[in-house]
Amino acid sequence: MNPSYYFTEFIRYLKTAKSAVISSTIVIALAVLLLGIYLTISINSVKLLKLIRDKVEIDAYLHDGIQPGDVSKLTSSIKTIGGVKNVTFVSKEEAAKIFAQEFGQDILEVFDYNPLPSSLKINLYDEYKTIERIEKIKQELQKNPEIADIVYAQKNLEIIERNSQSLVFLNLSLLIIITFSSVFLIGNTIRLMIVAKKDTIEIMKLIGATKETIRTPFIMEGFFQGLVGSLLAVILLQIFLGYFYATYTNNDFNFSIMDTKFLILLVIFGTLLGTLGSAISIRRFLKIA
């Protein structure tokens, strides 16, 4: 069959069922948009958990009057503990500067003296940033008499450990639900559109048209709907994410917008949904008919 025939039939199908084509295209756009929003939330939620984990460190507060030589020995000793990445000494003066930066007020305006102790900030390797392992490191640190107190962001770690596995399970479940729901909705919408053209299909069968001749324009139509719908979804997604990025991004957390590769994959996904939906629907219809 001449390719120009298929193209002509494809254009005729679009013109004779404009409302059905528009409805199907909108359904595809919504499916792709929903998937894009889900992926964005998923990526940024994982990124946020990593940001919280990256900030976890141990603060070992030292007794007043500790000598520089003792600090040096203590630092060297702590570096030998398994899981310790690096150790940074924070003097009383530096602690006062950090206080002023975080609270916008000089500590000497609150007290007549500087009550902040000197400390050691102990940074760990990522695999050691768990409550169980940090508690073991804490026990080792407590053996040093120069250390007065030891603290770390235990509540943040509890949140991460409690929610990490749940987040993975939730993300996987939502991805499966969204994908199958999209395929189901798009398949049904396209099937209704094909049923609306039942008379046209019957006439073509009566004049001896083969199944391939009947099927091809519908598949082209599905491809067109999937492409247009996914492009529309990507445009809307970029507008939405651009607004969200400008409104909610701060210095601590940079909201990630999907890059070009992700957007291209979304367009491919939507196009495949439309094409496969049409192919499966017309195949089933021809079998029943």
Describe the structure concisely for a colleague:
With 289 residues, the chain is α+β, with helices and mostly antiparallel strands.
Layout of helices and strands, plus pairs?
Blueprint: H1 3-16, H2 18-54, E1 58-62, H3 68-79, E2 84-90, H4 92-103, H5 107-110, E3 119-124, H6 131-141, E4 147-152, H7 154-196, H8 198-206, H9 211-248, H10 260-288
Helix pairs in contact: 1-9, 2-7, 2-9, 2-10, 7-10, 9-10
Question: If you had to describe this structure to a student in words, what would you say it looks like?
Answer:
It is a single chain. This protein is an alpha+beta fold. It has two domains: 3-52 and 160-288, no CATH class; 57-152, Alpha-Beta Plaits (2-Layer Sandwich). It contains ten helices and four strands; from the N terminus they run ααβαβααβαβαααα. The protein has a four-stranded antiparallel beta sheet with strand order 2-3-1-4. α2 (18-54) packs antiparallel against α7 and α7 runs parallel beside α10. The longest helix is centred in the middle third of the chain and has 43 residues, at 154-196. The radius of gyration is 31 Å and the shape is elongated.
